[in-house]
Amino acid sequence: MPTVRQHSGFFGHPPVRTAAVAKLRSAFVNMGGTGDCGFRSVAAGFIDNFLSGQRIKANVIARVLKQHVAYFPEHGSNMILATPTEELRELTRRVSMAELIQKLSYTLRQMAVNELCVNPARYRGAFVGSHENTSPDSMRKPSTWMDESAIAALANALDFPIEVRVVEKGKELPMRLQYNAGAANPGIVMQLQNDHYIPRVVHQEEFAAVRHKPAPVVRTNAVQHDPNLSEILAVIATEDKRLQEEFESLRHRLTAMVAAGELSKADLLKLYVKGMATSDYLQGRVQYVGTEHGTQHFFEAITQAQKEPEALVLTKEQYDEHIIAELIHALARAISIGDMPAERVFAQIDEVDEVRHHSVLR
Fold first, then answer.
1. What is the pLDDT of residue 305?
2. Which of 52, 156, 194, 314 could form a disulfide with 319 if both were Cys (CB 3.0 to 4.6 A apart)?
3. Strand locations in the chain, DSSP E?
4. Cα angle vertex 244, ends 242, 249, to 5°?
5. Phi, psi of 7, deg, nearest 5
6. From CA 181, how far away is CA 176, in angstroms rounded?
7. pLDDT value of residue 250
8. Closest C-alpha among 45, 51, 148, 39 to residue 102
9. In whole angstroms, how far apart are CA 229 and each of 127, 236, 254?
10. What Gene3D superfamilies does the database record attribute to this sequence (predicted)?
């Protein structure tokens, strides 16, 4: 019920009617789901942002609705000349929230798998390691649980920033994974607890019943043209080889420059600190999923260079050599993965060389 507030002033303004709206607070609400909890969470975050008046780009809404209606024609709109925003608003009013999230999560899963298949080397974790035998066909099924690679793929497909807060027992502060952090659309925040995703939403009551809705049984005539798993693994292997060769080339080049006296330990440290301060890694724009919190583990998985640490007693000279080797390794790795542009790093090296040359002439 609107309240009437009297505004005083020299000119005796008449009473102005303003709606007294209680500020809604967000909370993490379990959407349920076995295998599809991550996609349900993104679907809930997407709809919650829309209902909260967040400005979602019309082309994103249109793309989601087009694919969604292809799977669920009953969710199509009969509105003539309606905008994507109007169509989505009408859909949220016509269909129960439990059904909408349940079916929209299926649509978002398909969009994520499409992205994974187009760029498999970027999301290698979806296909290798513990998920090595998971084919695209299996990924498309609502019962298949998928790791962070699918969430990252969906963030890129939707052009949405997604933040996952990994909650572990005994740890007070959650680890935060950010995907497509620079996207212009409103963000989605989720918790990850024991492989189960839970979204943060404002409209808590509207989403309360979603968790009791089972995954949809989808019968579609749509034909998927996914590459087979062997083709995907071949693409990943080719990219792994390219990264390894580029890394070795960069490491050899930097080592030669140190041996020639063109770079010192201080120069290498300055290059790394300055380069990483403005890198895509710190800006949340990583080229390969799995490098959000550093590239070392990711790169070791590619090169299979995981070795047991050895306890060493180093002299001052050996220590300096060890630090130089580590800095060279870190720079080569960061450039190979794409955290630091090679042209920028070597431009900085040229600047160092030029400064040293001028100081010698003086």
1. 35
2. 314
3. 3-5, 16-18, 27-28, 162-167, 175-179, 188-193, 196-201
4. 95
5. -105, 115
6. 12
7. 86
8. 39
9. 8, 11, 37
10. 3.90.70.80
Which spans in 119-213 are helix H?
Answer: 136-139, 148-158, 204-207
Can you read off the two tokens belonging to residue 182?
């620079």
Residues of the chain with CATH 3.90.70.80: 23-225
Quote the tokens at residue 120: 């498999």
The encoded tokens of residue 140 equal 């498309």
**Alpha-carbon span 351 to 78, nearest angstrom:** 64
pLDDT tens digit sequence for 279-298: 444 344 455 565 444 455 55
Q: State the amino acid at position 334 in one-letter form.
A: A
Residue-level pLDDT at 220: 60
Spatial contact of 157 and 18, defined as CB atoms under 8 Å apart: no
Amino acid letter, residue 114: N
- Backbone φ and ψ for 177, nearest 5 degrees, come out as -110, 125
Query: What six digits make up the tokens of 205?
Result: 């009551």
Give the bridge partners for 191, in sequence order: 165, 198
Angle, CA 52 vertex, CA 50 and CA 53 arms, to 5°: 70
**23-225: what CATH class?**
alpha beta
Contacts of 313 (CB under 8 A, 6+ apart): none
3-state secondary structure of 322: helix
Render 192-248 in DSSP notation, one character per residue.
EETTEEEEEES-HHHHTTGGGSPPP-----PPP-PPPHHHHHHHHHHHHHHHHHHHH
Backbone angles phi, psi at 220, to 5 degrees: -130, 150
Nearest-angstrom CA–CA distance, 71 and 216: 11
